[in-house]
Every structure is written in C-alpha cells, then in structure tokens.
Amino acid sequence: MISMRATADLACDQSGNLFVSAASTNNAIVKFASDGTKSTFATGIEGALAFDAAGNLFVGVSDATGTIFKLAPDGTKSTFAEGVGNPVSLA
User: Fold this and answer.
1) Which of 16, 56, 60, 79 is 20 to 30 A distant from 67 in Cα terms?
2) What is the DSSP-derived secondary structure letter of residue 26?
3) Which of 65, 24, 20 is CA-nearest to residue 41?
4) pTM here?
5) In whole angstroms, what is the distance from residue 52 CA to residue 44 CA?
C-alpha cells in the first residue's frame, strides 16, 4: 500500500501508467499499470517525476548533488544532469 502524502510525486506516461515516488515506497518508484497492477519500476531512487515524449522518466533527486536521473522505458538509469540545485519539481 502506498500512502499518498504531500511528499509523494506522481507522473503518468503516454500509456496511462501511474508512477509514484514517495518516502513510503522505501526509495523506489512504483508503477501502477492502467489495469491497476502494481510493480516496482526502479529501486534506490526517489524524487520529482516527469516524462518526455519518448517515454523516458526523469527523476529530480533533492539532495546535496542536485542530480536529475533519466530512466529509459526499460528501467535503465543514467545521469542526465548534476549540480542543478534542488530539483523538487520537474515538468
């Protein structure tokens, strides 16, 4: 169960899947498919969420490094940008 607190970040991809990043997910991004099926999309990461047109998920981590990670649709993680301050919101 996910607790939907004010600290939860949400984003939907073009297929209607909901992605949730929240303190209650233990540093993981949880995916809810359009049929309600729940799965873990990525672990070891939490932050602000936004999708691009190609289906890549960007995660802005609010820590001392100010890093934005890019997660490909298959979950492959790479660093997109560093030192951008405190990326608490992405669009």
Assistant:
1) 16
2) S
3) 20
4) 0.85
5) 21
Per-position pLDDT tens, the chain of length 91: 554 444 679 999 999 999 999 777 778 899 999 999 999 999 988 899 999 999 999 999 877 788 999 999 999 999 999 988 888 788 8
Q: Are 59 and 29 in contact (CB under 8 A)?
A: yes
Q: Is 25 helix (H, G, I), strand (E, B) or coil?
A: helix
Contact between residue 60 and residue 88 where contact means Cβ atoms under 8 Å apart: yes
Q: b/e for 48-68, b at 16 or more Cβ within 10 A?
A: bbbbeeeebbbbbbbeeeebb
Bridge partners of residue 30, in order along the sequence: 20, 40
Q: Residue 70 — φ and ψ, nearest 5°?
A: -115, 125
The answer to whether 24 and 5 are in contact (CB under 8 A) is yes
